[in-house]
Amino acid sequence: MRKLTYFIGITIDGFIAAPDGDFDFLMAHVTEDYVPHLVAEYADTLPTPGRAALGVTDAPNTRFDTVVMGRATYDPGLAVGVTSPYAHLRQIVLSRSLTTSPDPAVEVTAEDPVALVRRLKQEDGLGIWLCGGADLAGQLLPEIDELIVKQYPVVAGSGIPLFRAGFSPRTFRLTDSQAFEGGNLVLTYAKAE
After folding, report:
1. CATH superfamily of 11-191
2. What are the pLDDT digits (tens) for 95-119?
3. What's the predicted TM-score (pTM) here?
4. Cα diameter, the chain
C-alpha cells in the first residue's frame, strides 16, 4: 500500500506561511549547504521550473509519483501563469470552488479528501505527497503516514499553522533528523502504530 507523506516547510514556531499565505520569507533561509540535499533527496518535490533551473528535469521520481494539494497551495503558481507546477507528477487539486482545471495535466476534484487518499493508497506506484495546506492537512491527518518537516531557522509569531484541525492528538515517532550549517533541519516522523 502506498503511503501519504506531508512534506512541508515550517518556522521554528510551527507556521507554514504568513497570515496572508505568503511563504517567501522561508525561502530566504534556503542556504547553500541545504540545496544539494533537497535536490538529491527530494527532487520529486521541486516545482517543474525549479527542476529545470537546477538541472534535474529528467531525474526519475524516486519517492513520489502523485501530489495532492489544496486550492490555496495551487493558486500562487496560477497567479504567475504556472498551470502545471509539478509536471513530473500526477497532480490533484482538491477544491470546491475551482470546477475546471486550467491545465489538462492537473486533476481538479471536489471529492472528499479522505476518500480520495484512501483510493490513491490502493493504487500501484510510488508515494503520495501532500503538498499543503493547513486545512487539507487537518482533514487528512488520520491518513498521514509520514511527516517530513523542513524546519527553517526563523520565528514568525503568527501565520498559517502546520495543521488546521480540531483537537485530536496523534502520535508520530522521529525516524530521522538532519541538521545543516545554516540552521535548517529536516525531521522525518512516522505515524506511531
Report:
1. Dihydrofolate Reductase, subunit A (3.40.430.10)
2. 999 989 999 999 999 999 999 999 9
3. 0.95
4. 44
